[in-house]
Amino acid sequence: MSALDEMVRTSDSLRPPIRVASVPADHVYVRHTSSTAPGATLVQRLPDPRPARGDGGWWPPRALEPGWVEDHHDEFDVMHVHFGFDAVSPDALRDLVHTLRRHRKPLVLTVHDLRNPHHRDRSTHDAQLDVLVPGADALVTLTAGAQAEIRRRWSRWAAVLPHPHVVPLEDLPTEPTLRPAPSRRGGSFVVGMHVKSLRACMDPVALLPVLDRATRAIPGGVLRIDGHSDVLDPAGRRYDPSLADALARCGDHVDVRVHDYFTDDELFAYLADLDLSVLPYRWGTHSGWLEACRDVGTAVAAPTCGYYADQAPVHSFGFDVGRLDEASLEAAVGSSWVGTPPPGPTRAAREAQREHVADAHRILYAHLLEA
């Protein structure tokens, strides 16, 4: 560290921490935008206010409720919205923006989703973004593609900051992990598609016949389908008979597993057991699942909707609302079998990326408070 850098850091350390009301604070993405440096106190992300209703955790985010900013504006310096405004009306968001402005509290918005993966109809999310994007004092997003769409739709500039790691830093490899191409390794070649609890954007039934055909054509090919009990157990509250019927028509090489939610450790172990993870999304923007796959060194087949290919190297296939390019999906499976998977990022690389993201947020907050 140069003498100048040391002086800057010493000067920063004498300032009071910037208090950020993150919406939410207890989310893996948000937690991993904080510095891991010993004694890092320049940014203080406040804990999530306890929800007045819901099942605990941060949902629904109380900081977005009417009156919360009015009652607590002296407890934070900046509000940074990431997720959780799904059920908040555009009028309520407009009131939030006005209240923050009246109390001279800057609003930062990270545009994770340009289309909400939980909404079949995009009109509500579009209306919410039509309030938040023009109303924010600063915008952040994750990819150049999303940045260009934001500029096109709202004539606003957004800083591009990469998605940080998902797997804990201490569990990442210290050296690059190089896997041989599955075709040269021999043994099984496992293609996984996890349907979770069937988000609105997911359409696994459309992909199943293609994945069935593509994996059957590969020596040792196995198609593993995981799903939560609520959609694949006949007694589940969201049981989907069309998906269950489609799975029943698949061949013996299809390994169907029905279970409740994985713990984090179980999820990372599951992803590491795959050679290829297929994202069955007809719409979306960015993906934390993709980043978790990168962390464990598993290849990803991602649809052309959204900006997944901008986020990280993927095997792209044509899939969006009303369209499936079956040949490109088969090619994605085939190329992941013959190609050498890219090495996952090392602990040092992810740690350096995280510090870069943390510094960028700190500088952004400080600039807004000095304006």
UniProtKB/TrEMBL annotation:
The lineage of its organism: Bacteria, Bacillati, Actinomycetota, Actinomycetes, Propionibacteriales. It comes from the Bacteria. SUPFAM superfamilies: UDP-Glycosyltransferase/glycogen phosphorylase (SSF53756). This is Glycosyltransferase subfamily 4-like N-terminal domain-containing protein. It comes from Aeromicrobium halocynthiae.
